[in-house]
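Hey team,

Filing this mostly as a record. A colleague (T.K.) asked me to run one chain through the structure pipeline before their review meeting, and I want the input and output archived in the tracker in case anyone asks later how it was produced. No errors, nothing strange. Just documentation.

Input sequence:
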Amino acid sequence: MFTGDEITVKDNLDKIVSFSPAVTETLFLLGLGDKIIADSAFCARPDEAKNKRKLASYSTTRNDILAALDPDIILTVSGYQEKLFNNLRDFNTYVFELPSSMHGILDLISRVGIVVNKKEESKELEYRLMEYEKRINVNKRYKTYFEIDLGGPVTFGSMSYITDSLFLMGFDTIYRDYDSEWVMPDFDYVKKMNPDVIIYEHKMYRNFNENDMENLINKRGWNDISAVKNNKVYITPGKLDFFAHHGPSFFTDVIPWTVNIYNSL
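Output structure:
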């Protein structure tokens, strides 16, 4: 794997632990949902993943319970789960690199397929998801501010698949030139950049509506921003991670939703 570590993986995996929501969703779509014996508290796609035993948050788990379960393999991703991976080195753990581009999400699916011996199935899934890219038709780019509540406001720079995906869909984010993945936003800088569009993703499992968004805008003094004055502020749908989820449903859910916004501008 990209960390330089080497592990031995059985051809037939009977007991899989997946601590990455994106990897968990991929495993189900590859027909391995019944092999998953545990996942993380944030694994919620597909619905069946919610019924699996929850053994981890983003960065912590119960090593004693894992040892008793004796999984064939544990799967995680880099980036936000690096601390978790470092605590799992006594287990047969494979860490996938966090995607930095929209096409990197497809590559992650391919790499998962290789590790779990589902190469053909993962390629077929990739090809099906590529069809959603055909919905993208960009003839103009809109200056955009994007934010996710990850326990606090976070936006994204050039090293994020979110920034790359938004750009490909016609949304030029105001932090795109920052050479980093995560960025703590400067609210005065957002006002100065005066974006045409604001896209906001609330914290996972939280109820968040237009009144909450209006209160947030008032608190930050953003009422004179073009996106606000022209009613071009968009809240991502549902209670689950949306852009923050880099699994297959990024193509089936996020791309169509974002393309619809673009076409309405």
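Quick notes for T.K.: The chain has a mean pLDDT of 92. The domain at 136-264 is CATH 3.40.50.1980 (Rossmann fold).
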